[in-house]
Fold this protein.
Amino acid sequence: MATTPTATDRTDNNSSGPLATLRTLALKPIYPLTRLGATLTTHAALRVTAIGHARAVPPPSQAAMLASSHCGMVMDPAVLIATNQDRQCHFWAKREVWAMPVMAFVFDGLGAVPVARPKMAVGSLGHSIEPTMGSIPRLAAEGGESPGSRERSVTADSTASSSNGGGGANAALWRATSEMLARGQLLCVFPEGTSYTLPHLIAFKDGLSRAALDRARRAKDARESGDTSAQSAPIIPVGVSYVEKTWWRTSVVCTYGDPINVDEYLGKDVSELTREIERRVRLVTVNAPDWYVVLLWIFFSSAHHEKKNKNE
């Protein structure tokens, strides 16, 4: 497993000495302990079924990016960690976490990267899908973007300046992400940017697409310079679906979909890749136009599991 990048790895801080060495040693056991805790917690509190992991996730030597749904709050990262025992999951996390010294130390040990998020307007979560029975199959068939999503017109070529340690609140994020992917690590991102309690996905943001396209561009440049081993990082859609997330020992299905080849989107608008990520994640999640459909799904799913358990 790749070593955990610390705050020192993600900045230009060249400090050294006994204190820096001690800090590095203290950070090392944080992820193994977290993985153990996440595994024990998910097995105790949930009934997790993982589908498609072995087929979709590349070996530890190859960089990859997980694009996961995020309706389960803190349990979603735990499920991803528990279903990726052979690889360390590196998460993007809101920058506010690093304002607390203890949490900053823990998240550095986890290899997480801080993200500066804009404030969300009240009511902005509900705009992702029109509440009609026909909207979900239409979006899935057409590969369309959720109604209300913002317009995007940034090309892959223009991501170089924004992702290459340029200005802006997230300059360190782009730099750290680029370094992680160059080291062949596994990055886990929740493209919706927040957790929620809704019967469907909400609009996806462009950050993951920008990072993936930047990596693809760098890999292409490296190959043209003679490094035949340079590869882009595939994006793997992941759906974490709960029968009812407030129930103890509820059933959870973590579905890993077919990887997205980012090379195919070089030179195209970032929005095209974002729409494809959203479409792919939609295919591996349960999306309903309203809560009535969700309740019906919960009822029949629960009845099915109860009947199955009795037969066993």
Observations:
- Residues 1-14, 122-166 have pLDDT under 50 and may be disordered.
- The first strand starts at residue 46 and ends at 51.
